[in-house]
Write a structure and sequence with these properties.
113 residues, Chorismate Mutase Domain, subunit A, 4 helices
């Protein structure tokens, strides 16, 4: 496993740098959560499409594609494969739950999930 330590990580011993790094981390966390929210919004749109078109919620091939892409990212970035798989299992599980709610609902778009 290749682990790259960038300059910012090596400078973390400086307290001023530590605060700057924490600010960077807070910004990245906000971006990560915003991206996760956007992902869920797209999954809601997919669920409405599936409901309208009669497409089954579960698409195992698609889940495989997403998991393989995440695994490749983990390998390329020195991340634990089990961690990435567990993280995506949680994300996929939640979006499947939301899709089920929307597909099974007898409501108009915008009122479910």
């Amino acid at each position: 496993m290749k682990v790259v330590v960038n300059q910012a990580v090596r400078e973390a011993a400086d307290p001023g740098t530590l605060e700057a790094l924490r600010a960077d981390l807070d910004r990245i966390d906000a971006e990560f959560l915003a991206a996760l929210g956007a992902r869920v919004d797209v999954c809601r749109s997919i669920a409405y499409y599936k409901r309208e078109q009669g497409v089954p919620m579960m698409q195992p091939h698609r889940i495989n594609v997403v998991q393989q892409r995440a695994a490749a990212f983990a390998e390329a970035n020195g991340l634990d494969l089990t961690f990435i798989k567990q993280m995506y299992d949680l994300i996929i599980g939640e979006t499947c739950r939301i899709e089920d709610l929307i597909i099974d609902a007898d409501t108009e778009p915008g009122s479910a999930a």
